[in-house]
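We modelled the chain as a single entity of 195 amino acids. Its sequence is:
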Amino acid sequence: MESTQISLGDLADITIGVTFRGADATHHSPDGTHQLVRIGDVSTSGIIDTQKVNLVKVDDRSIAKYELRRGDIILASRGERMPVAVYDLPIKSIVGSQFFIIRLNNSRLTPAYLRWFLSVEPTQRTLASMLKGSYIKSLSKESLTTLRVPVPPLNKQNTIVELNKLLQLESNILLRLSQAKPLLLNQSVLNKISK
């Protein structure tokens, strides 16, 4: 059975992150109220780095609609790299205007599957083709809402996500193995010649 294709705007509410005013507005503040997730904090595999804490002070009332909720998908809206992550941190967080916050409003789609779909190369190429601007190219909210998303049954979405996790695990293991091989070989040679 083929997947139904639905516009992203019909599956989710899409918001642009917070616009900060002033050069120091995004600098770390020890008494900050929210973690600011930046583009560099999101890996290509969709992991949000929590090691580089960058707290910013914002007014809770005016920021409420921008505060990330578990299951929100964040997508970078500009640059050559448009990383995507599912927000699942136990701390109050926000993103700046270089991100879209995609909040699903349809139970036919899981956040993990949508993150996978938005991050695969063919979709990234489609998103890149939608970028506009002369100096800094960015993706408009209007363009993003028109993106067609294949919506397979939930069990297939879960299978796709699990297969992708295994693929990432294999990739990480192969990378570690390729890094360890020269060390093991050199140690073995050193052991033989020092006898």
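As a brief sanity check on the tokenised model: Strands lie at 4-7, 12-16, 34-37, 55-56, 73-76, 84-86, 93-95, 99-104, 148-151. Helices lie at 60-63, 111-119, 121-129, 141-146, 154-193.
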